[in-house]
Model the fold of this input.
Amino acid sequence: MQDKISFSQVLGSLKAVLGKLEEKRKELDRLDSPIGDGDHGRTISNAFQKLTPLFESSEEDIGVLLKKVGRTLALSAGAAAGPLYGTAFMEAGKVVEGKKEIDLGDMVKMAQAFEEGIKRRGKAEVGEKTMLDTVHPAVESLKKSLSENLSLEDALKNMKEEAKRGMESTKDLISQRGRSSRLGERTRGHIDPGAASCYYIIEAMVDFLLSS
Done:
C-alpha cells in the first residue's frame, strides 16, 4: 500500500460503507432491540444509502466530498445518528478541503475533527456507551501510529483493531445517553448498536483501502 490515499480511494471506501451497513442491517437491529427501538440497522443503512448521488461527483476534492457527505447525513432523518455523523463528516472535511490525496498526518487531523464533532453535537464523553467508545480509541491509535512513524498500512490495521476493542468495551458499560439511558443497569451486557455501526463503518473503509 502507498503512503497516500487518493480521492478515488476515499470515494470507494464510502461505497464500501454502504454495502457493509446494508449487510449488517439485521444484526444491528438485533443489537438495538434489547436497549432501543430495534431499528438502528435500518435507520443507519437508509441514512447512508442517501449518499449514492454524491458518488457521481467529478470534483476531486476530498474535503468537499466529506462536507457533502456530512450535509446529506445531517438531513437524512436518521434519528440521532444522522446529525451526529453529519457534523463529524463536515468537521473532518474542513481540515482537508482542497486536497486530492491525504496522508497519515491528514488522517489524524480528520479523525480528531470527526471525534470533536461528535462530542460537540452529542454532548457525550468516552465511557458513556456511545459511538465515541469506538471512535476515540481509533483516533488515539492513529495518533500513536503517526508518532511512531508507522506505515499507513500498519496505521490502518491498528486503527481497525482498536476500534473493534472500543466497540466491544461497550458491553460492560451502562448507557448514559439517549433513550437507552432510561434502562440503566439493564443496558449492561449489551454492545451499543451505535458503537457497533461505527465500527462497521471503520471496518469497511479500512478493508477497502487496504485492498485497493
Notes: The radius of gyration is 16 Å.
